[in-house]
Amino acid sequence: MTYGAAEVLRGVDLEIEHGEIFTLLGPNGAGKTTTVEILEGFRDRSSGEVSVLGTDPARGTDAWRAQLGIVLQSWRDHPRWSARDLLAHLGEFYDDPRDPDELLGALGLTAQAGQRASRLSGGQRRRLDVALGIVGRPRLLFLDEPTTGFDPEARREFHLLIRRLAADEGITVLLTTHDLAEAEKLADRTAILVGGEIAVCGTPSELARAVRARSHVRWVEDGRERVLTTEDPSQAAWELHRRFDGPVPGLEIRRPSLEENYLNLIGRAA
Ligand SMILES: Nc1ncnc2c1ncn2[C@@H]1O[C@H](COP(=O)(O)OP(=O)(O)OP(=O)(O)O)[C@@H](O)[C@H]1O
C-alpha cells in the first residue's frame, strides 16, 4: 500500500478464521489503521488482493457493509442523545437490529440507558461504542484501539465482553492495539506489524516463542562481575555450578519479559 510515493504496507498476508479474535499489534505508524481501513472498505489499496466475508472491500455493497461492525477510536455522534436513543437510531439502518435495552443489559449499561452519551465515563462510553458496533448483528467486528485509557478493571471487563461476543455469538473480531499484554490475554492469534510488514504472526505461545530473547547469566569470578548471554540459561548455570564445584558467587539469571522482547523486536525491525 502506498500513500503517494510512500510505501506503508508491504507483503501483508493474513487469513483470519470465522469466530476468531485476531489482534493487529504494533507501534505508532506501523500501518494498523491503514490495514483495517482497507479491510473495512474505507480506503482504496494501491495493490494486492483482499477478501472480507467473500467480497473485495473496494467493491463492497450495502448488504456486505451491513455485516460489519466498526468501532472507531472516537465517534462524533450527538452528545445530547441518550445511549438508548443512539442505539435505536442506528438500529433503524439494519434489517434485524438488536433491541437497545437488551443490548445495554448485555453490556452492563442498563443504569445508563437514559443518560446522555457525553456524560458516560470513558469505560462506559467504550462499551456503548461496542453496542453501537454490534446493534446490526455483524458477522465481523472491527475495534480500533478499544481500551486506550482504561483502568485495569475496565480493561479486564472489556476483554471478557469481547470473549463472550466471540464465543456466544460466533462474531469474528479484529482488534488493533499497541498493548502486547492485551494481545496476549485476548487474542486467539496476533500479527505484529512493524514498519508496514508482519514481523510475527501466531497464537500467544507462538508469539512468546518467536519474540523470546536471550537471557543474561551473571556471576562473580576473580572479584569481577561476569555476564553471559544465552538461550539456555539453565544449561549455563549447570556448567557454572560444576566449574565452581558448588554455589556460584553472585549468580543471577535474568530472563527478559515478553514486553522487553517485544520492544527489542520492534526496535530491531523498525
Ligand atoms: N492519509 C495518509 N496520507 C499519507 N500518509 C499516511 C496517511 N495515513 C497514514 N499515513 C502514514 O502511513 C503509515 C501507517 O499509518 P497508520 O495510521 O496505518 O499506522 P498505525 O499503526 O495505525 O499507527 P497508530 O498506532 O499511531 O494509530 C504512517 O507512516 C503514516 O504516517
From TrEMBL:
Highest taxon of the lineage: Bacteria
Signal peptide: none
Transport keyword on record: yes
Topology relative to the membrane: Peripheral membrane protein
Subcellular localization, as worded in the UniProt entry: Cell membrane
UniProt entry keywords in alphabetical sequence: Antibiotic resistance, ATP-binding, Nucleotide-binding, Transport
Pfam families the record matches: ABC_tran
Entry-linked PROSITE patterns: ABC_TRANSPORTER_1, ABC_TRANSPORTER_2
One Gene Ontology MF term: ATP binding
Name used for this protein in its record: ABC transporter ATP-binding protein
Native species: Streptosporangium oxazolinicum
